[in-house]
Design brief:
- Helix content is 20%, strand content 39%.
- The chain has 398 residues and is of the alpha+beta class.
- 25% of the residues are buried.
- It has a 9-stranded antiparallel beta sheet. Strands 14, 17, 18, 19, 20, 21, 22, 23 and 24 form a 9-stranded antiparallel beta sheet that branches.
Length: 398
């Protein structure tokens, strides 16, 4: 028995020695290893209006190579931007280089003095673009790793090429990602078409300049949306096309059977407007005044009027506008329709005979209720249409 115990003890000791031998202590980081670091901002450059990326390749603490990428407004307060990218020569803590801007071909000269203070960096010097000289005096700038930089560069334009339904994207809202050199021809092709182009999407952002692509935002009648997407996809220079987020908010949406509201394969708009107006007239305590369907976007606009209660003796009038959209609940047609109804917007005016009181108010008017449907209009419409509301918690119609 003692011999057996002795052998076991020896075996355990030998195993421990082997395990210790196989376990290597972590090696110390090489102080001279090559590392890439980024500055994604240099405070104060061009009055704070420049979008800056400074890439440094370091050998230990010394900079061995640098690249400066600057996107900036061509004029003060201008939406149009230009950009330059310059490889900088490194001499100690001095970074210098020359190039020309990509858009306007303006000559660019860069001279920066770099100083590290603890974990932050200061930059001093000048950047000349054409005849304009910008003084650089920026302190306490922090750098990030290459992984952190790459993670921050991900941009999602929300385009869904083939959505399963319209719960995450809106049936009238189309996004087209197009190469910058093809954007003009694509936009020209939309002239004379029943398509609405978002003005804000025409401005070429710094992200677009760096990617070489921009996303154009369009609104179109849902009945023509699929055809527009298909046509865009076949257009030279278009990288992606599909549906995006738009006016539809699911907490103000209703899904209902299409059978009672179609004549053949066409929506009976008069019948549907009559039903919607009848419900809203009750919930808003107002009389229907007008209705209009946009031939471009397919949006419905309803107008109601009622006596204002702000100062009853003045006999003022509230004008209430309600926007809406009706479409199949998914691309490619469906036996169900989806109605989105916006929050009512009210303006008040003196519409009486004779001399009128001139009133001032916020140009946007007053919204009655909000997404929570305080007027009860959405719930009343769901009941009238025998429809379903969206359960955001469970992501299902109920």
């Amino acid at each position: 028995m003692r011999a057996l115990l002795f052998c076991l003890a020896g075996l355990v000791a030998a195993s421990a020695d082997i395990a210790f031998a196989q376990t290597k202590l972590p090696s110390k980081a090489d102080p001279n290893a090559t590392e890439v670091r980024y500055f994604t901002a240099i405070d104060g450059l061009m009055d704070g209006n420049a979008d800056v990326i400074l890439k440094e390749t370091r050998q230990g603490k010394a900079v061995s190579a640098a690249m400066l990428d600057v996107c900036y407004p061509v004029e003060k307060n201008s939406d149009r931007k230009d950009r330059f990218v310059v490889n900088l020569a490194v001499s100690g803590q001095t970074l210098t280089g020359t190039t020309q801007s990509i858009g306007d071909k303006s000559p660019v000269t860069v001279k920066l003095l770099r100083k590290q203070t603890g974990d932050t960096f200061d930059f001093r010097g000048q950047i000349s673009i054409g005849q304009t000289v910008t003084e650089v005096a920026s302190s306490e700038n922090s750098d990030v790793s290459e992984k952190e930089f790459q993670d921050s560069q991900t941009v999602d334009d929300g385009i869904t090429a083939a959505p399963k339904d319209f719960t995450d994207v809106s049936p009238e809202s189309i996004g087209v990602r197009v190469k910058l050199d093809a954007a003009l021809d694509f936009l020209k092709s939309l002239k004379g078409q029943e398509v609405e182009v978002a003005l804000s999407s025409l401005a070429v952002t710094c992200d677009a300049l760096r990617a070489g692509q921009q996303t154009i935002s369009l609104s179109v009648d849902p009945d023509r949306a699929a055809a527009l997407v298909a046509k865009a996809k076949s257009t030279p220079g278009v990288v992606a096309a599909g549906w995006t987020a738009g006016v539809v908010e699911m907490d103000r949406a209703i899904r209902f059977s299409a059978a009672d509201w179609r004549d053949g394969d066409k929506l009976n708009k008069d019948k549907l407007v009559s039903a919607i107006s009848g419900v809203l007239a009750k919930t808003l305590a107002a009389k229907p005044a007008a209705s209009n369907w946009s031939a471009t976007t397919g949006k419905l606009r309803l107008t109601f009027k009622r006596p204002s209660q702000v100062f009853p003796a003045l006999n003022l009038t509230d004008t209430i506008e309600v926007a809406g959209l009706v479409a199949p609940d998914k691309p490619g047609g469906s036996d169900r329709l989806m109605l989105w109804i916006g929050s009512p917007v009210t303006t008040t005016a003196d519409e009486g005979a004779g001399a009128k009181l001139i009133l001032s108010e916020d140009s946007s008017g007053d919204e009655e209720g909000d997404a929570r449907d305080e007027t009860g209009s959405v719930e009343a419409l769901a009941k009238e249409l025998k429809g379903q509301r969206w359960d955001a918690d469970k992501s299902v119609w109920k």
